[in-house]
Design goal:
Two copies of one chain form a homodimer.
Chain A: E1 6-8, H1 14-25, H2 34-46, E2 53-55, E3 65-73, H3 75-78, H4 87-99, E4 105-108, H5 118-126, E5 130-131, E6 133-134, H6 147-150, E7 158-161, E8 167-171, H7 175-188, E9 192-196, E10 200-201, H8 202-208, E11 210-211, H9 213-230, H10 234-244, E12 251-267, E13 270-278, E14 285-291, E15 293-299, E16 302-306, E17 310-315, E18 332-338, H11 347-353, H12 367-370
Parallel strand pairs in A: 2-5, 3-4
Antiparallel strand pairs in A: 1-2, 3-9, 3-10, 6-11, 7-8, 7-9, 12-13, 12-18, 13-14, 14-15, 15-16, 17-18
Helix pairs in contact in A: 1-9, 2-5, 9-10
């Protein structure tokens, strides 16, 4: 790339803001951001780079080589199995060797939880710029649930690395096989691996990525932080950002109450389960099912939101998103939903990331229609 | 390699002889050779090569690049999931690309079932010579159960391919991780994949491979065929070849009777189960446990043979070995054992391929001691 026009991001509060915004957009998934925050904070004082440059996709050369990155596995595992810190850099070196090309820029494959922060760690180690975009506009549990798969970009060659130095180069004839192989291998290696996949040109990033999602995550976090100091409601602040965003547009509170039950197991590389929330007066109950990410929310038998729309569980007081692996009995929560970007709602996208892709019988309906949020 | 001194093998009966010998040495595993025989027969009339050159390990240059090859998965799967025919050639091309070197020769990673024949298919497509050796002196269910692992040769880089064109390059920090990852990925890809691993120099082949096992398999098959036409007992012929071989040395019949029960399931990429055999007078019972290969044989509670010694189930009349996935109720069988080559019986080897490596509590004891075959 000849010129990078970007903005530097890691000012005093940006990391916390970004983490809070990613957690919300992640729909409960993408992993708990806590360890990533610790790693970034450590790198900021110890690395040769002390800032990260975010560039707009517009500034990419058409033939730039851009690599989405992130972690694959069950978030419950990543709480206990810490990274060694070499996974992403070792993967990047191998990826460049396989491609015979240098990577010009990186971005998060999903804007959620710790995966939204993953490229920041790599950027602080390499100086690579991060493109202000992601591949999902949220987080999804399976790697083929990405807009690049919808438009026919190949996941291969994918490079997976683990904390011990094990490396896999995966070339599959379709993107579903890539998920199957990567998931099985990640489980065999302990349940949490770093993955580069869907490497693409600058032109493809411009055409197909979900743009501006890092900025959006930052803005969500910043607004929430600012209203807290003024005593206003941070959930309102979060929703106002979503409603003003052209790609998302609708957002609202689906339910408010206390978590009365969490069922969760780590199965085949996923955290799978459900939670039950009861209103404080005990009159109504919501069930939310999840597979890493929250997939569907029902009040009694009435569906009020499904994938790909965002469903996040927020702490009642702080409005901080509680990722699925951190849900506990007794937490007082608001279940908040936001409409997914339009490109995730096409028939082709819904076939890959809608309710039927998770084996659910419920038909997708936009959350704003289900809840009468249209004005 | 400058000069290849070898012998051509595929005369009129050699294929059948080889398959019968491999099946016996395979200890019930390595896959049913039937489809491999069909594929080789077809190649012999359609390929540009109409013979295979077998070379002695002695003739290899020290710096020759030699690739063991074979199939990984459950033999029960390979009965139903046929190869496309492109797996080994695609894997070879990728392996040479990863190494940046041409492969000079190949050999079977294990001398058993269809895996003993696998290099013949590749040789008929490429003209590559086959080294008269293998890595196990028999067959084992797990890929790290190989003499090259015992002596510290790395399995990486390993290249795995499937019938659809999916390809994995696996680099692991230890050989146990290579088996775990390859097995998990093979299961994800349908349960049967072609694998190159433990690529080594000519010098390493000379030092560490189990030599002469292709010749031995051929000789076993040839002797069995010749005595059949004369009306003598083919099991005796088989055992006489084993007893005259310096590496194996001891062999005998453990039990004779009718199969009264077979329990077998395909689990985590293996065929796992046991069979029960009863003497024709109903007075005694033998149990044989298997994981792809036969692992232990007991008469009542008395252990009469365990891995790594060879335990094969032979048809009473023909002395043909019945691979574990072909065992059926009612078959009349002889359970035959042969002592494993000495290098498989060292403490270091037993830790990797002895009873404890399969979670069995029984201590290894040489089959000739257990059965008083020493003269």
């Amino acid at each position: 790339m000849s010129v990078i026009k970007g903005f530097s991001v890691l000012d005093e509060h940006a990391l916390e803001d970004l983490a809070n915004g990613c957690a919300f957009l992640g729909s409960g998934g993408g992993g708990d951001p806590y360890y990533s925050i610790l790693e970034i904070t450590s790198l900021l004082s110890n690395s040769q780079f002390n800032d990260v440059t975010i560039i707009s996709a517009d500034t990419l050369d058409d033939d730039a080589v851009v690599a989405p990155c992130g972690w694959l596995g069950a978030p419950t595992v990543s709480l206990e199995k810490l990274p060694s810190g070499t996974e992403a850099t070792a993967g990047l070196a191998r990826l460049e060797q396989v491609l015979g090309k240098k990577i010009d820029a990186i971005f998060p494959v999903e804007i959620g939880g710790s995966n939204g922060l993953a490229p920041f760690i790599l950027a602080l180690k390499t100086g690579l710029p991060i493109v202000d975009c992601d591949g999902m506009g949220r987080a999804f549990p399976e790697s083929q649930m990405v807009i690049f798969n919808v438009v026919g970009i190949s996941a291969s060659p994918a490079v997976m690395t683990d904390a011990k130095g094990n490396t896999l180069v995966i070339d599959t004839v379709d993107n579903e096989a890539e998920e199957l192989v990567a998931r099985a291998a990640a489980v065999a290696l302990g349940g949490s691996c770093h993955l580069f996949e869907y490497v693409q040109t600058g032109k493809q990033v411009k055409q197909h990525a979900i743009h501006g999602t890092i900025s959006l995550a930052l803005e969500i976090g910043r607004k929430m932080r600012r209203v807290k100091s003024s005593g206003s409601d941070p959930t309102d602040a979060l929703l106002s950002v979503i409603r003003q965003n052209a790609d998302y547009g609708y957002g609202g509170i689906l339910f408010e109450g206390k978590i009365t039950d969490v069922k969760r197991e780590t199965n085949q590389g996923f955290s799978v389960g459900h939670l039950l929330v009861e209103t404080f007066d005990g009159q109504q109950q919501m069930e939310v099912k999840f597979q890493n990410e929250n997939l569907i929310a029902k009040i009694g038998e009435r569906v009020v939101a499904t994938v790909p729309d965002i469903i996040s569980v927020l702490d009642c007081e702080t409005a901080q998103t509680i990722t699925t692996e951190q849900l506990r009995y007794g937490q007082r929560v608001k279940i908040v939903s936001a409409s997914a970007p339009g490109v995730l709602r096409s028939p082709a996208a819904l076939a890959i990331m809608g309710p039927s892709a998770f084996g659910m019988v419920e038909q997708y309906q936009p959350v704003e229609l289900l809840n009468g949020w249209e004005s």
